[in-house]
Amino acid sequence: MATSQDQPGRRSRPRPQGAPAAGGNEPAPTPGPAEKQTRLHLLALNPTDSVTHGFLPAAAALGLAVTLLTDQPDAHRSAYAKGASLPETDVVGCDVRDFREVISRIGRLGRPGAVFTNSDHLQVQAALAADYFGLPGKDWKAAHRAKDKAQLRRSLAAAGADTVRSAELGPYDDPAGPEILGLPFPCVLKPREGVASEDVVLVGDPGELAARCRGIRARRPGAALVVEEYLDGPLHTLETLGDGHVLHTLGTFRTGLSPLPYFVEERLTLLPGPPRPHAADALRQLRALGVGFGACHTEYVAQGDRARIVEVNYRAIGDQCDLALADALGIPLFAYILRTHLGERLPGHLGGRADGRARVEYVCADRGGTLTRAPSASDTERDGVRLVYRPLRGTGEAHPLHRTNRDYLGVIRATGTDEGRIGRAVEEFLAAQRWEITP
Fold it and tell me: How far is 179 from 143, CA to CA, in rounded Å?
């Protein structure tokens, strides 16, 4: 499944002392000790499955010492208390949203071997810190272009890569002002730097736009918003991994969304075979943005052979899709990602299997209330399908309906080589289980 392309124009940075080199034509490495004294500084906000079950075990397999900088240290210490496969992790409190505090804290702790984050919110901070200490990392300007959805649109249009009609609304801008003139309805309203489809909504007319803006501003005081044309068509993702020299395409998912006007992801299915023609167009646009180092998760609407980019998340795909992708491809995905930040070149071929299939299904709350019944975590393997279920909300917890991924009650990830068997396994699991919410 994985394919690669040459990636031009990377600023050379020194490889950290003790980190082994990986030549571009070498076979896929097996995660093993990199250097016992190499220390990874990992930036995080809240604990995530990607870090807990992906990057920290990969760091352990690579023999890395880990310092985790976070503004939620107690939550992380609790999450890692029983992680037998995790490396010894020093959890350090830090205002990780402020790059100056990150650099200051790292300076006090001693020179790192790598600075890394998988958080949407912290890519610029990690990139600036890595650059400050002369370490491999992402271009902070490219990270900013990806994070700021208004700047993303301006950058793609300026490069001649694609033009999506859009307007940026500052915290006090009038949603009926001249910036909105000429935009077609229906259009999409979203926070400029939002994630997880939170407060992303399709609006049908100027009156609804004004009302939705008032609601979002009440929940997010001071937030800037983006209004843009609605891109109609099937939604896909493109998963890439680069080292600044070569850019690998890991695969593409087809995404199933909730009914409009909301955009909650309910199902992702890994597509078989080589990337579709529109994936090449998405890669062209990523190059225009300067994206090509480490992991990147891009969402786009397929319109013929064109890829109309919805957003670029300059990190690995989340919500356990990264775990499913690693299983389906049969590669040490998280270790590969960390190796790029250690200054290693990726091999020309990652060794991923071409027949791997995956489906990730989210069980979503359909109303607010208290979860009173739900299945426990399980792992099964039958008829060539590995099915993993993990609860994302505990029984007894009460929540309103958010219309985001905070409505997820649990996640099913199924992997194998036969898409039909995978689909049947998921449907049988859903039919056999019950989730009950009491108002």
Answer: 26
